[in-house]
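Collaborator request log, item 7. Partner lab (contact: R.S.) asked for a structural prediction of Fructosamine kinase to inform their binding assays.
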Amino acid sequence: MHEARWFKELPVDGIQRIQRVAGGDVNQAYQVETASKKYFLLNQPGQTAAFYDNEVEGLRAMHQAGVRVPEVIGQGELDGTAYLLLEFLAESYQGDHHALGEMVARLHAAQSPTGKYGFNTDYRGSAIAFSNAWTDTWPALFLNQRMDPLAEALVQKGLWSQTDYNLYLKVREVMERDLMQHQSKPGLLHGDLWSGNYMFLTDGSPALFDPASFYGDREFDLAITTVFGGFSPAFYEAYCDNYPLEPDYSYRLPFYRLYLLMVHLLKFGNSYRQSVEHEQERILAGEAYTI
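Returned to partner:
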């Protein structure tokens, strides 16, 4: 980053300081300070401004659904680097998990304006991109536009053998059969709802950030919350009080847990191989995962 030009070109006046901060495994992140305000800046070298289209559209859709998210201040490209400038949210390490569950239920209750599954923008990440082209059914989006590209990428990267891929095809048959029998609704999803993507503000209220949004089956988001922990019983209780789950939901959660573990296998390598295999075994055995 050529700081002098960034001081001049970012769409806020009076920048006094730009400081590198932690920002996850996808983006470079900075705190931008003026005399009166702070902002949060994400950078992605070698990308155009369009790299952040999905995140921007997701944040706007979530805001319209009544979810607290950081406001988008600006999006663009500078020196061959895509950037996204966001409202800075001051964080507290304690907050209302019940309110978080209510907020996620409110998010999922926002239904697709087209009645279809997908989104207006595709997902672009550091390890893989996913199409969000509109589909008539949930299995068409989840299996054809998420799981199949993931499986093929794992083979291409040498992380899966043909034997591994053949096992995936057996697991896929089970998922397709079960999902075709399930009555999904295309609700607005965060798309990457692990504990690192929610926070509590200084008044204890919750906020969500860093979405990979699309309209899909809400069980997808809920399964993601279970993989690495960080969501309390109060969260799940409040969610189910506001938006009850289907009685057989627990037999489908492993499908989406497998998705996230396959993403991590692709990004971080064989340290996730055993977890992927365990989740595949769970699906083939018809075992449930209950929240």
